[in-house]
Structure formats: structure tokens, C-alpha cells
């Protein structure tokens, strides 16, 4: 089965009037253990990567060749806000953007709760959703 480049519903999940489910559950974060581990120890790195990958896909229409980079300005600002105890606010806003791109069910309250209570799982879930679309390009852009 061939999947078109840029497919935003790679697993062909059913789409209702209010959208579809995430391709990977929130508690499925161990499916990408490396990302989850980094998100546990240094969430700003994964946040920055997810944010940059999302913005690149959204503006350029193909995956970021740097895979989101490592220490971007998004990472640094998020790290500072995490240190102040409010990093979840940036995560909540980014999660909303990712949900919008992929027509995923949910709302601000759920975004806030997952960002505040389940940071590593939430960041890993977003990363995996982006990765599914990026894989459909097969190195082409």
C-alpha cells in the first residue's frame, strides 16, 4: 500500500464531525522510549524539536531536514518558562496547533491538562504524530 507524501492521517483513522483520535495514545509514549526519556529529563529539547518540525511542515510543506534542531530559541524560552513553572502554557498552545493540523479531537482544557500533568507523554505523542506525516515523504521534498 502506497501512502501519499504529506498524508496527515497515515493510519486512516475514522474522522467524525469533530475530528479524529491521535494516531498514538497519550500513554503510548514508551513506543518511542528515546523521545520520552529526553522529554522526562529535558522537556525543552523535545518541545523545541516538535515546535520547529511543526512550523517547518506548516510553512514549507515538507519535513525539516534538521529534524527540528536541538537548542533553538523555542527550546531556550521553554526551558526558562519550565524553570518558572509555566512551561506547560507553551506546550498547550503548540498542542492545539498540532491538533488543528491533523484534525484531531480535543480542546483547550484537555490540552492544558495533558501539558501540565503528563509533559513527557504529551510531547512524545505530538512528536510521533509529526513523524508519521514526515515518513510519508520518504526523504523526498
Short key terms for the protein model shown above:
single chain, 141 residues, mainly alpha, globular
Biggest beta sheet attributes: none
The span between the termini is 20 Å
Query: Which outline best applies?
Result: globular
Assign a percent range to the helix content.
55-70%
Give a verbal description of the structure.
The chain is an all-alpha fold. The chain is 58% helix and 0% strand. The chain contains six helices and no strands. Helix 2 (43-60) packs across helix 3 (73-84), helix 4 crosses helix 5 and helix 4 packs parallel to helix 6 (119-135). The two termini are 20 Å apart. The model has no long low-confidence stretch (mean pLDDT 91).
Summarize the structure.
The chain has helices at 33-41, 43-60, 73-84, 87-102, 108-117, 119-135. The protein has 141 residues and is mainly alpha-helical. The longest helix has 18 residues, at 43-60.
Amino acid at each position: 500500500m502506497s501512502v501519499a507524501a504529506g498524508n496527515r492521517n497515515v493510519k486512516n483513522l475514522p474522522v467524525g464531525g469533530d475530528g479524529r483520535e491521535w494516531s498514538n495514545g497519550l500513554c503510548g509514549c514508551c513506543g518511542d522510549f528515546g523521545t520520552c526519556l529526553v522529554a522526562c529529563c529535558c522537556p525543552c529539547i523535545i518541545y523545541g524539536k516538535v515546535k520547529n518540525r511543526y512550523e517547518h511542515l506548516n510553512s514549507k510543506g515538507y519535513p525539516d531536514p534538521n529534524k527540528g534542531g536541538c537548542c533553538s530559541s523555542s527550546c531556550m524560552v521553554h526551558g526558562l518558562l519550565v524553570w518558572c513553572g509555566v512551561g506547560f502554557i507553551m506546550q498547550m498552545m503548540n498542542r492545539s496547533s498540532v491538533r488543528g493540523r491533523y484534525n484531531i479531537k480535543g480542546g483547550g482544557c484537555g490540552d492544558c491538562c495533558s501539558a501540565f500533568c503528563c509533559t513527557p507523554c504529551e510531547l512524545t505523542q505530538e512528536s510521533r504524530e509529526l513523524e508519521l506525516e514526515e515518513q510519508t515523504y520518504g526523504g523526498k521534498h
